[in-house]
Specification:
The structure holds three protein chains of three kinds. Chain A is of the alpha/beta class. Helices cover 33% and strands 22% of the residues of chain A. Chain A starts with a strand and ends with a helix. The relative contact order of chain B is 0.17. Chain B is globular, with a radius of gyration of 16 Å. In chain B, 44% of the residues lie in helices and 15% in strands. The longest helix of chain B has 17 residues. Chain C has two domains: 242 residues, TIM Barrel, CATH 3.20.20; 66 residues, no CATH class. Helix content of chain C is 31%, strand content 22%. Chain C has an eight-stranded parallel β-barrel, surrounded by six helices. Chain C has a three-stranded antiparallel beta sheet with strand order 9-10-11, with no helix packed on it. A two-stranded antiparallel ribbon of chain C has the order 12-13. Classes of the chains: A alpha/beta, B alpha+beta, C alpha/beta. Chains in contact: A-C, B-C. At the A-C interface, helix 4, helix 5, helix 6, strand 7 and helix 7 of A face helix 4, helix 5, strand 8, helix 7 and strand 11 of C. Strand 8 of chain A pairs antiparallel with strand 12 of chain C.
């Protein structure tokens, strides 16, 4: 089992992006998906960083793929999607319409925002050219177990969400702009103020969600540390880690040591809290419970 | 514009005597009605499904007593307000609101959104009951006449004028023919 | 234009047909459809009877099998498709790739519509589904403006269906796990959003509070109505802002946009609300039938007064107006 770094869903300044991927070149992860996932309006601000990031990462021995947008509606966005193939890297499909641009027989990856819930869908994608699939985070372990068997039979590498705020929803409406009482078309890129998303709490102060432009994430960080061994035994081949603005190198190292059995799940959590003292965790989806709940064994260890 | 359904109440002329009458004859008549109704409309229990064993308090706010429905035992009994045993779910509203919903004249959600109906307790059970009764296309007058034949003739003569007099939906609103 | 109307029960189906629906959509009483609520939906025999009732009066019946089949339990969804065909359904409404592939292969003559749960939001996505699975009609997600719908229709050659009234998802449909994050049950897996068994209404001090899975979604002064705690319509706090971060407690009313939607080339207008009663269905269907009849006759459509039927008793035209975003 190894590690995949998810595309960064947040809006970071170009220099932050540059520093992030330069550092990631040396991190103990097997592959990195990059590109703009959430909002095409952000891309002009940092797209110049992509070629160099790819170069750094490949020089560091990482496999690199480019993600499609999560929700493609505009003509410009469709063109952008069609152009992804020109870069000669695998495309990670996070909106099924990207498939329209990928010729039959050209291999592609499937991201967690595509609804792969069952054997029929997994088989269809595999036969269409899908070679690596990251399952939607809301799937319970029972489903993962069934799908892992099918993936093995179809020669598909299967990934499961391992760490990070969960991508829960995508919308046509920009919540960052709405919170700043701006229209989406004149948002002035306010999402840049919140490099890990803007927290949304209940009226009683319960920590709940986090908005990131048109995306809604969990406020808690999913952490599958407790389930890693079980997932490996099922045949899952990678855990996916989502970038965060602080301490991500530590996150990669901690999960890498967990997979190498050098770190217990409890020690991994302690490690994560070093960088983020008030980091809140969740792992409920795997158990078929509320996704927000946290019953990791490590929680009580 | 007709009066909003939430504002229509039973005239006090009718409810005043109920304060002093004993409730056991009411309970006997109501349970007979419920038994008859569930027997002639078996689809109601099928739709209520796993909530059959739940108890529902129907608080008709302009009546001096509350009703407690036990679908599995086909019991519908009256209790003085505050004296009913605990229920799994409670629906409160005016007689007019309950009748309008039962007779397909008003939508339950609409009544709820406007505050004419209130819900407490197990929301799933309330939905199951509401949906089951909506599908059954009941006409309360016909059901009463069925269950309590001695009331059939007076009901037949009085419902239409009473409906005009009170503004209550005393008969089924839609007239979908029973052709299949 | 075709009016596609909801039916959660056989009684609602008959009410919709009698009120003038051209088309009724409904689902089986299990996790195969996206309105899997207690007391709702159709048995196999009820569907067959409903199809008979509709067909005798010139109306069609579409069966929504639009959740994403559970791994290891696909046969439940496969038999739903087979049983819909047996019952004489005019089409099935599907969202899952695997189920579309299965249906195209095993039931080639059964007309396939793409559910809004598939969130096909651009011509590439629609053409992909049309080519891969011979989908004949696409229900467009509620993230598009009228102008975008017109542009889409110019680039595709399958029918489109758009929502004009009822509950409004603010997220791309079929791509939202907010409900399962709070409760463990989701539209995609279980056919329920903000499921009632996880709803808790409480009176605290002078407030009415509505919670979902323990998370406070609404708090209103007592006497006011605490709306049903649908997660994306809740009231939350973010930094110095408190309010409806995602959407107000409103529902969609695009009745005034019907003439413009007609010009975009849309084939069918869809009314949401399989969870609502037969009274609701009859009122909305009659109102919208007056609009489509007026349009067909070249008359100005009547203005509809439907706000009181809406959640929150307030309405929006949603993403159809570009400013909504």
């Amino acid at each position: 089992m190894d590690l995949t770094v998810a595309p960064n869903p947040f809006f970071w300044r170009a220099d932050a992006v540059r520093g992030f991927y330069a550092a990631l070149a040396d991190a103990p992860v097997a592959r990195v998906v990059l590109g703009e996932l959430v909002c095409s309006k952000r891309l002009p601000f940092w797209q110049e960083e992509i070629p160099q990031a790819v170069e750094f990462l490949q020089a560091g021995g990482k496999q690199v793929a480019l993600t499609s947008l999560a929700l493609i509606t505009l003509k410009r966005e469709r063109k952008l999607t069609a152009d992804l193939l020109d870069l000669g890297l695998p495309v990670e499909v996070n909106d099924l319409s990207a498939l329209h641009h990928i010729p039959q027989g050209v291999p592609f990856w499937v991201g967690p925002l595509v609804n792969v819930y069952n054997e029929g869908t997994l088989r269809w994608l595999a036969r269409r050219g899908g070679t690596r699939i990251c399952l939607p985070p809301e799937l319970p372990m029972a489903s993962v177990a069934v799908l892992a068997k099918v993936a093995q039979a179809e020669g598909v590498a299967l990934e499961v969400w391992g760490h990070g705020r969960l991508p829960l929803a995508i919308s046509g409406r920009c919540y960052h702009a709405r919170l700043h009482e701006r229209a989406k078309d004149s948002c002035q890129f306010v999402c840049e103020q919140d490099p890990d998303g803007r927290d949304v709490d209940t009226l009683e102060g319960q920590r709940f969600l986090s908005v990131n432009g048109v995306q809604t994430l969990s406020q808690a960080y999913a952490c599958m540390a407790d389930h890693a061994a079980e997932l490996r035994d099922m045949g899952v081949s990678a855990l996916r880690l989502q970038p965060q603005s602080v301490g991500f190198e530590g996150v990669c190292k901690a999960y890498s040591r967990l997979l190498a059995s050098e770190l217990t799940p409890a020690a991994l959590l302690e490690n994560l809290r070093l960088a983020h003292a008030d980091m809140q965790f969740c792992d409920g989806f795997g158990r078929g419970a509320a996704g927000a709940s946290w019953q990791g064994r490590a929680a009580t260890a | 514009m007709p009066e909003p359904i939430g504002n229509v109440t039973i005239p006090r002329l009718f409810t005043a005597p109920m304060h002093i009458l004993p409730l056991w004859p009411v309970s006997i008549a109501l349970s007979r009605l419920a038994r008859n109704l569930l027997r002639t409309h078996p689809e109601i229990l099928r739709r209520i499904d796993k909530y059959q064993n739940h108890h529902f308090e129907l608080d008709i706010t302009d009546l001096p007593f509350v009703l407690r429905l036990d679908p599995a035992r086909a019991q519908l009994r009256a209790f003085r307000r505050g004296a009913a045993p605990a229920s799994d779910a409670r629906i409160a509203g005016s007689f007019a609101a309950f009748l309008a919903m039962l007779h397909g004249a008003e939508d339950g959600d609409t009544l709820y959104f406007s505050g004419a109906l209130q819900i407490e307790g197990d929301t799933s059970a309330v939905l199951a009951l509401r949906n089951a009764l909506d599908d059954a296309e009941l006409d309360l007058g016909a059901e009463i006449a069925n269950a309590l034949p001695f009331l059939a003739a007076p009901l037949r003569q009085s419902l239409a004028p009473l409906e005009r007099l009170t503004g209550l939906h005393l008969t089924r609103a839609d007239t979908t023919p029973e052709v299949y | 234009m075709e009016l596609v109307c909801p039916a959660g029960t056989p009684a609602a189906l008959r009410a919709a047909v009698d009120a003038g629906a051209h088309c009724i959509y409904c689902g089986f009483a299990d996790e195969t459809n996206a309105r899997n609520f207690p007391g709702l939906n159709f048995s196999r025999s009820e569907l067959a009877e409903g199809v008979g009732y509709a067909h005798a009066r010139g109306a069609k019946v579409l069966v929504a099998i639009n959740t994403f089949p559970t791994a290891g339990k696909e046969s439940l969804w496969h038999s739903a498709v087979a049983d819909a065909e047996t019952a004489g359904a005019d089409a099935v409404i599907l969202a899952d790739l695997g189920l579309l592939a299965h249906t195209a292969q095993r039931h080639p003559d059964l007309r396939r519509h793409l559910s809004v749960q598939a969130a096909a939001a651009n011509p590439d996505a629609i053409n992909f589904y049309a080519q891969a699975f011979d989908v004949r009609r696409v229900v467009l997600p509620r993230v598009l403006s009228v102008e975008e719908i017109a542009a889409i229709n110019r680039e595709i050659d399958v029918e489109t269906e758009v929502f004009v009234f009822g509950g409004l998802c603010v997220m791309a449909e079929g791509r939202c796990s907010l409900s399962s994050y709070a409760t463990g049950r989701s539209p995609n897996m279980n056919g329920v959003c903000s499921p009632p068994e996880h709803v808790d209404y409480a009176t605290e001090g002078s407030d009415s509070v509505a919670r979902l899975g323990g998370f406070t979604i609404h708090r209103t002064p007592k006497g006011g109505v605490a709306p049903y705690p649908t997660l994306c319509k809740g009231c939350f706090t973010s930094g110095d802002k408190t309010g409806h971060v995602f959407e107000d407690a409103v529902s969609l009313d695009a009745s005034k946009l019907v003439p413009r939607l007609a010009k975009t080339g849309v084939t069918a207008l869809k009314i949401e609300g399989r969870q609502r009663s037969r009274a609701y269905v009859a009122q909305i269907v009659r109102a919208f039938r007056a609009v489509t009849d007026a349009l067909a006759d070249g008359r100005d459509p009547p203005a509809l007064a439907l706000a009181r039927l809406s959640e929150g008793q307030a309405a929006t035209t949603g993403a159809y107006a570009k400013t909504w975003r």
